[in-house]
């Protein structure tokens, strides 16, 4: 995902144009003889990586309502494009959950609950799970549930710190250092936030021109870092810039 971001960042013009969507249909993974009405992106620009969700390192389209695909008939819910490669065992787990917990409606709060609960029944790696938590944090902030959003960020930070103690691909390490800095600041731990800033600065200074994707991502984070100094504890993570 991060490599894709910087392929796009390096290739798209900076001119701003509105994101647009087109209607489509996909097969319901639960009821394979049924179709689900969804939307797919038609146009967007590199500016999506400058939007406030950058502080959580989650991006459009999954930060927009159409980026969460939902089948009204079965209740199956997932991120856009993630309706395939679901094993028979996973399908049975999800069917059982939806039978016991039929969705009452299809509003965003219901979709977020379904998103979290259904992904808990799917086999996903730790990187995906952390992105899911951060996406939920972003969504709950957007709908005004700030306490819940920040609880998700604390959960994400615990996992990020655990992962940083291991060997990680260079781009992911940079991403997690940036997030650890932001989330520590937002949690009110200025000291730890400063320590992660120093680690990130050191890591960024070590990036060479050998890997274009890593170099592109490092330059992007250098642009973002100054704003992170203004992240304060509590409230939204988005800083009020001077």
Summarize this structure as a short list of keywords or feature phrases:
mainly alpha, 242 residues, globular, two-stranded antiparallel ribbon, disordered N terminus, single chain, two-stranded antiparallel sheet
Mean pLDDT: 93
Q: How many strand elements?
A: 4
What's the shape?
globular
Span of the ends, CA to CA: 31 Å
Largest sheet: 2 strands, antiparallel
Enumerate the spans where pLDDT stays under 50 for 5 or more consecutive residues.
Answer: 3-16
> What spatial order of strands do you see in the largest sheet?
1-2
What does the radius of gyration come to?
Answer: 19 Å
The tally of helices reads 8
Q: Helical proportion?
A: 40-55%
Query: How are helices and strands ordered from N to C?
Result: HEEEEHHHHHHH
Structural class: mainly alpha
Beta-strand proportion: 5-15%
Structural account:
Keywords: Signal. Residues 1-18 form the signal peptide. Pfam families: DUF2225. It comes from Candidatus Venteria ishoeyi. This is Tetratricopeptide repeat protein. The chain has helices at residues 2-11, 88-100, 108-119, 126-142, 146-164, 170-186, 190-205, 212-228, and strands spanning 20-27, 35-43, 68-70, 77-79. α5 crosses α6. 50% of the residues lie in helices and 10% in strands. Mean pLDDT is 93; it is low at 3-16. The strands form 2 sheets. It has a two-stranded antiparallel sheet with strand order 1-2. It has a two-stranded antiparallel ribbon with strand order 3-4. It contains 8 helices and 4 strands, in the order αββββααααααα. It has 242 residues and is mainly alpha-helical.
